[in-house]
Amino acid sequence: MDLITIRQLSVSRRIADINLNLVPGEMLGVIGANGAGKSTLLQCLGGVLPYRGEILLNDRLLRQMPGREQARQIGFLPQSSQSAWALTVEDVITLGRLPWGDNDQEAVRQAAADTQVSDWMQRQVDQLSGGQQARVWLARVLAGKPTVLLADEPVASLDLYHQQYILTLLRRYARNNRGVILSIHDLSLAARYCDRLCLLHQGRVLAAGTPAEVLTQDHLRTAFHIDAHIDLESQPPIIVPK
Ligand SMILES: Nc1ncnc2c1ncn2[C@@H]1O[C@H](COP(=O)(O)OP(=O)(O)OP(=O)(O)O)[C@@H](O)[C@H]1O
């Protein structure tokens, strides 16, 4: 059974007729050029953007689910998160417990440890570097222990070590009978860590399937206007523009 089923999803002038699914244990990467519709798709799934079509979670229509239950089941990390207040790192991560109405200290501690931010618990989040803050905002989502974790470019601001570390963490998170959908620009990382990819082009699905099915010369030419060097057999896989 699908964890997430998406049918005929459309948002006026942004995305159209998207059909897609996510199965338990899976990490799905959403790729595509700037403006292709990746954030729009994730915002619909995250319940922050109205849409036409259907999104089902475990065979239940998302729009008929009470807000609190949706928030417990689906955790959303937007592309850029900022705090308007002078919150500490611990405050931010504890916000992830809001859907549960508690401040489960063990969940907060574990999320901080998993994202390697434990040393900064009492620091003000807006005084951390961009990449450090990105890990704190991810910890907030992890603390809620959602069944489906959505992350919009979670590694865009991370150094090379933390890109690999966080993608490994997210994949491990999905494996535990949960699911992860993330958007990502680095195609080599996408091929290395994602089970399946969905390539968006001008708001529509150009290709969806295994990295080998999606990352073809033809698809990359259409979606990105590049000729690419593609070597999916090498360890790790390499996809770079020629
Ligand atoms: N708030 C908005 N109102 C209207 N149109 C929007 C809005 N946000 C984005 N769009 C448009 O929707 C389309 C898809 O944008 P989206 O942000 O989903 O792309 P993306 O694939 O995430 O791009 P990027 O790689 O640059 O983050 C674009 O044409 C964009 O201009």
Description:
The protein is α/β, with parallel strands linked by helices and 242 residues long. The chain has one domain: P-loop containing nucleotide triphosphate hydrolases (Rossmann fold, 3-Layer(aba) Sandwich), CATH 3.40.50.300. It contains nine helices and twelve strands. Helix 3 runs parallel beside helix 5 (130-143) and helix 4 crosses helix 5 (130-143). The longest helix has 16 residues, at 160-175. The model has no long low-confidence stretch (mean pLDDT 96). Adenosine-5'-triphosphate is lined by residues 14, 32, 34-40. Keywords: ATP-binding, Nucleotide-binding, Translocase, Transport.
Question: Would you kindly provide a brief summary of this structure?
Answer:
The protein has 242 residues and is α/β, with parallel strands linked by helices.
Helix and strand arrangement:
Elements lengths: L3 E8 L3 E8 L4 E6 L5 H8 L6 E6 L2 E2 L5 H7 E4 L11 H7 L9 H10 L15 H14 L4 E5 L7 H16 L3 E5 L3 H7 L2 E6 L2 E6 L1 H4 L2 H8 L3 E4 L6 E4 L1
Parallel strand pairs: 3-8, 3-9, 6-7, 7-8
Antiparallel strand pairs: 1-2, 1-4, 4-5, 9-10, 11-12
Helix pairs in contact: 3-5, 4-5
Adenosine-5'-triphosphate binds next to helix 1.
Protein name: ABC transporter ATP-binding protein
Organism: Halopseudomonas formosensis
Function: Part of the ABC transporter complex HmuTUV involved in hemin import. Responsible for energy coupling to the transport system.
